[in-house]
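Changelog note: in this version the structure field was regenerated for every chain. One regenerated record is shown below for reference.
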Amino acid sequence: MTDDSETRTEPYEEGDRVRVHLSEEAAESELDGTVCRVVHVFAGGDGGDEAVPRETARASYRVEDVETGDVLPAVVRHRDVVPAGD
């Protein structure tokens, strides 16, 4: 399996595989490192991150664990997920 450690500049779409990659402060969360499938995209709004387009910076996702099929109990922000390989 291959993955990137950088957040994409385009929003993910339903069905995309992502890995939860939380900041150092939250890295001890049980969600960190979970490989998931995007099941719903919450459209972004007015973001302030200049490296990422506004609509992407504010996007968030409802995701499900690919191993268990369980929907994660939290909505994850775009900056907290990275692409996951197959």
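Spot check on this record: The first strand starts at residue 17 and ends at 20. Residues 17-83 form one domain.
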